[in-house]
Amino acid sequence: MHRYRSHTCGALREADIGQEVRLSGWCHRIRDHGGLLFIDLRDHYGMTQCVVDPDSKAFGLAEKLRAEWVVKIDGKVRRRPEGTDNADLPTGMVELFIADIEVLGEAGELPMPVFGDQEYPEEIRLKYRFLDLRREKLHQNIMTRGAIVDSMRARMKTAGFFEFQTPILTASSPEGARDFLVPSRIHPGKFYALPQAPQQYKQLLMMSGFDRYFQIAPCFRDEDPRADRLPGEFYQLDVEMSFVTQDDVFAAMEPVITGVFEDFAKGKPVTKKWPRIPFAESLRKYGTDKPDLRNPLVMQDVSEHFRGSGFKVFARMLEDATNQVWAIPGPGGGSRAFCDRMNSWAQGEGQPGLGYIMWREGGEGAGPLANNIGPERTAAIREQLGLKEGDAAFFVAGDPQKFWKFAGLARTKLGEELNLIDKDRFELAWIVDFPMYEYNEEDKKVDFSHNPFSMPQGGMEALQTQDPLTINAFQYDIACNGYEIASGGIRNHRPDAMVKAFEIAGYGEETVIERFGGMYRAFQYGAPPHGGMAAGVDRIVMLLCGTNNLREISLFPMNQRAEDLLMGAPSEVALKQLRELHIRLNLPQN
């Protein structure tokens, strides 16, 4: 028999009854039932109930065992007594009657429990992550993550993509987030950078004629903590294709992402045919560029019903052609208590309030706005929004460029409060036609809105003849249940158009050559039209595991201060190491 086990702790079945077997694992739970000791023995594969009575030579040692001790157990498989079967366990019809126990590894007093999934302080969980990872739910999340990555990889290869590994040590790129810098010992005073993304390398692969690339790529960004991204590093399904239009990218990637979701949705419906929603339409209808389409609420422009009305606050605003009034329907929200609660919530978000109209029995509008604009306008708003008795509408007014984010928050809040969101489904959509540029109020200049390497719609002609703020890019995102899970674009592969695009944002040709010299040179020697995208592996896994915390799907994450509490990183280094790198510290004064 094998030194440690003949079977895993998840393998024994009724067919094994009567066999002499050997198991090794962790003591998950130990129970004393009137002289009989029950040990739930756990390993990576499952759990087996083991039992020992006072007549066994192993009983004395069994009494000394504690939670999370690692033991080897020899014994005979037998059927559990009638009425004690456990249908929740694959091994629940049998138990192991213990003949012998060997302690392989004792455990000290636990700083946190492994049995059960109760909440525990995050600092403790991260410091003792090896214990945390033994817990059933987190352990399963990590295994699900691996299976999702396998599914992605298999689907990409079936779709004709080739897997490549791009460099981890690369050149610093000042745009975007801050780089993590790596000092060079053999080139004093110079630094490598960890890649924020393989963007330039994957485009260079297209210049090299490889046609269809993908990679499960690690990306590194020295960003301040964000709720929707792990600090320091994250993983993405990185993709690039040659000789493609935007439609070709969609046709290639939609089945891959849909298939991955269907594989792990546990029966929940997944969007079959993804809608394509222009960026401007997404802001207008949902108040976000990553809409949760499980929420049925759609905002509408109701400015005409307030223009010249008796509600002077809105009427005066609308004298400025820039301003609008948007309505957010609230089906079932037509009570004074609910409307007042929403108004208080808005004030808590830093707004002056949230105007509303309620429709009472008989269809009559109620509330201060209804009283000021009159029954005809109130009825017209109700008809436009398709509302009925017992419903309400909430209003946001001003410059949409300034209020759309708050309007989106209000739509989400209403959907949650009125229980309108179907949480048992995955709604996927393409968000398209992102603006190429935006106006930077702080620096009083035109800046790139998103990826500077995207092809402007209209190409060189648009860059030469259009107002930059009216140019859209072949830039797109994938939204799922209120999260952006992927972003991509058709690339600007023409060197003259690339230079012109950067000139509009205030960068000369010399800057393009300095920052993106490798790619710019490659464009001079026959660049194919190409495009791609990158999907966030961590966010996809998070959604499919049914959690809203990225730390619940990552092996060894940092805390929100970008500290690895388990390994003690970042840490100080020896002066000898600094001298070898020709680095002298200039620390901030306390």
UniProtKB/TrEMBL annotation:
User: From the UniProt record, which GO molecular function terms apply?
Assistant: aspartate-tRNA ligase activity; aspartate-tRNA(Asn) ligase activity; ATP binding; nucleic acid binding
Name the site position(s) for Important for tRNA non-discrimination: 33, 83
Q: Does the keyword Protein biosynthesis apply?
A: yes
Principal localisation: cytoplasm
Which keywords fit this entry according to its UniProt record? Aminoacyl-tRNA synthetase, ATP-binding, Cytoplasm, Ligase, Nucleotide-binding, Protein biosynthesis
Q: Does the keyword ATP-binding apply?
A: yes
Cross-referenced Pfam families? GAD (PF02938), tRNA-synt_2 (PF00152), tRNA_anti-codon (PF01336)
Subunit composition?
Homodimer.
Stated family: Belongs to the class-II aminoacyl-tRNA synthetase family. Type 1 subfamily.
Protein name per UniProt: Aspartate--tRNA(Asp/Asn) ligase
